[in-house]
Amino acid sequence: MSATPTVLILPGWQNSGHAHWQSRWERLHGDRRVEQREWFTPKRADWIAALEAEVSAAPSDVVLVAHSLGCVLTAHWAAASARAVRVRGALLVAPPQLERTGMPPELADFRPIPQQRLPFPAVLVFSTNDPFSDAGWSQRQAEAWGAEPVDLGARGHVNAESGLGDWPEARAIVTKWMKDLI
Q: In Gene Ontology terms, what is one molecular function of this protein (predicted)?
């Protein structure tokens, strides 16, 4: 019997506030947030190093729960880390289309977005009216990463303003990956 997996929360640019579903999951389920030294001017190498340290320190396999730039972090880290074999699944929510016109310059260090298939199961959840990506791009990105696409309809950037509350439907995906380990 395997140990219970560690759920790592990977917020995006500027972190996830108190009402964000990621923060709610942290409080409700005891998930562990991967803290970044700099949330407002993120550096890819620093963010990758923080994720690598958390996966290395985890007492068991992990499930990644990423939002926005955290999704791009997941792809960069997976392309470079031998520890990606410890990931049992990744919930990737609202990845930003970084090559899109008008993206904040603070995110430039994360370009280009890796296009290789992720080495673990993934679900990519997107919205049809996300201000940081369009639905067609999100569908293509899911295909590139080998992730199952889930279209939420018009839910903005799938954050606190999207009215998801504790978002039990998405938590069910994480719970399945956790049960698959035991």
A: hydrolase activity
ω into 112 cis (within 30 of 0) = yes
CATH architecture of 6-181: 3-Layer(aba) Sandwich (3.40)
Could you tell me the two tokens for 169? 């439907």
Strand ranges (E), 37-86: 62-67
Q: What gap in Å lies between CA 164 and CA 53, rounded to an integer? A: 30
* pLDDT tens per residue across span 22-31: 999 999 999 9
Give the side-chain half-sphere CA count within 13 A for 28: 14
Q: Full-prediction pTM beyond 0.90? A: yes
The C-alpha atoms of residue 11 and residue 25 are separated, in whole angstroms, by: 12
